[in-house]
Amino acid sequence: MIDLKELTPDEIDRLCAHELGQKPGQGHRVAIQLFRKRVEDLDAMTDLNRPFRELLKGHCAISQLAIERSDAADDGTTKLLYRLGDGNSIEGVLIPGPDRLTLCVSTQVGCASGCGFCLTGASGLIRNLTPGEMVNQFFAAARFAGERPVTNIVLMGTGEPLGNYDAVRKFIQTATDRRGLGFSPKKVTLSTCGLAPMIERLADDTIAVSLAVSLNATTDAIRDRIMPVNKAYPIGRLMEAVRYYGEKTGRSVTIEYVLFKGFNDSDEDAARLGVLLQGVTCMINILMFNPFPGSVYERPDEERAYAFRNLLLKNGHVAVVRNSMGRDILAACGQLRAADK
Ligand code: SF4
What is the predicted pLDDT for the residue at 336? Predict the structure, then answer.
């Protein structure tokens, strides 16, 4: 049995044409039923005629994912724990805003990147998620959210998306296809810790998505300490890839910079960051670290965060201080899963 959620709309169409003897376009009708109308039962796809539905039932299945636990913070941010078919668990977060509801999607069970400020990194990589498991996170979270539609997707949950490139590419295709989940590429953001060659590949493959790069330091000495990926792709190499991506796609890149008190939040850091990003079309998101039990880093106060931002603004950059939502529910990466364990 082929799980239809593992396939992109074009792949469903090819399957229907080549293996089920249907006319081209019939499979797209199946994709619209499944992804746009969220009909997860082949019998209930009444837009398709009965013989076609029976044929599909003989070859295809539609998987589902259960939410095992949810924790809501006072600000409405809700952390979700999904249980996978093999018993592993992954996390998601629903983040409400005044005019949006953002879903944070995981791309791997665990993560190989080992960032020093992240609980997921401490447990290592267990396995990659499939495209269907990512699509299923969306379905489960959208069901959980009820009337309120999910308006944005960020690939910022457990895992390094560019470390699971092929599955993530397929998920993005399904998410942004009008016969798939139908999101604008501007509303789907992939966040990477800095796998420079894969950033370039993303540009070369013309994958329509918004890119965010988690930078968090302005010198290799500091970045080496919190992000081991920097040893493979130091800041200079990473910036080369970011510039390449910007030039090749014409898109603005989001630079994520998490402030750790007394570690990477000085005026000198802000000045160096300004220089690093000179000529890069980007928006700088400044976040204040969310400490978790046992973390060695501390959260700076808001005044420091705004002073840091103001220095960037003075140098002509676009920079905003983002609120860390859900501080009271362990909303940083990997924390609910760690609590589950
Ligand atoms: Fe992996 Fe992201 Fe955690 Fe780094 S912050 S270890 S990339 S999950």
Answer: 44
Residue to mutate, 93, 104, 106, 113, ligand 1, most ligand atoms under 8 Å from C-beta: 113
Q: Residue 119: its pLDDT value, please?
A: 76
Element (H, E) at 269: helix 267-276
E strands, the chain, are: 2-3, 60-61, 66-72, 78-83, 89-97, 100-104, 108-110, 125-128, 152-155, 188-192, 210-214, 253-259, 282-288, 318-322
Q: Which atom number of ligand 1 is nearest to the Cα of residue 157?
A: 8
Kindly state the tokens that stand for 267.
């005026």
Number of C-beta neighbours around residue 255 at 10 A: 26
DSSP 57: H
* Residue 330: band (very low, low, confident or very high) from pLDDT cuts 50, 70, 90: very low
Marked catalytic residue, from 6, 11, 91, 133? 91
CA atoms within 13 A on the CB side of 29: 16
Q: Is 177 helix (H, G, I), strand (E, B) or coil?
A: coil
Contact 113, 121 (CB under 8 A): yes
326 has a pLDDT exceeding 80:
no
SS3 301: coil
pLDDT in tens, 221-239: 999 999 999 999 999 999 9
Burial of 307 (0-12, 13-18, 19+ CB in 10 A): middle
**0.90 cut: is pTM over it?**
yes
Ligand 1 mean position to 158 CA, how many Å? 7
